[in-house]
Amino acid sequence: MSRGRGYLHHGSATLAAAVLVAAVAALFPAGPLPGAQASPPPSHLAQTASFRASPETVGEAAPGFRLIDQRGEPANLSAFEGHTVVLTFINPVCISDCPLIAQYFRQADQSLGVQAADVDFVAIVADPKNRALSLTGAFDRQEYLAHVANWYYLTGSARELSDVRHAYAALIAGPASNTLVAQGEVAYVIDGHGREAAVLTDSPAVERVDAPFSSVLLDHIERTLPA
To answer: Which domains does the chain have, with CATH numbers?
Structure first.
């Protein structure tokens, strides 16, 4: 698995609610996904985002996985050891919450500055029917993520994707539940030792906090970073 910026380590970071999103977007041409509209510019997404994050500290080992990244390289959770991992599930043809959370991740990476070298942002394909590398690549270009070195969009077989999503959903809904959080509405913050540090979601299953998702996400990333 190729590891862009410091790929051999795991990490974390922090930040403020109003996340800056640069005119860097203009440098990367967006390519709409088949059957989907191109998402609004990142600045528009940041300004119109309204859903809130609900953190829940977990402290247990994060479920492992063996998938491939957007380059077709093998990817597994242990490869990120030493870095903070921020993980979510995204449907590459989704045009609502999925582009929004992708932009939260991109903005967090920008806000972290040099600390971003200790953080990896990981998305796993949420819908096994849309798992082709051509779709994940198109999503990356559409959301200006193709040149973000510590962004990894993972896919695999339908069975592999279903298993890993159920494993992570259990951290929110409980082991006895098969209920999955809606696509793109959850972010898991995993520390450098592979432990769940927080789950951020707008699910009613966890206590809500009155703060923007982006602000809460950055705060929990920062808590996992080395002092």
So the answer is: 40-224 (3.40.30.10)
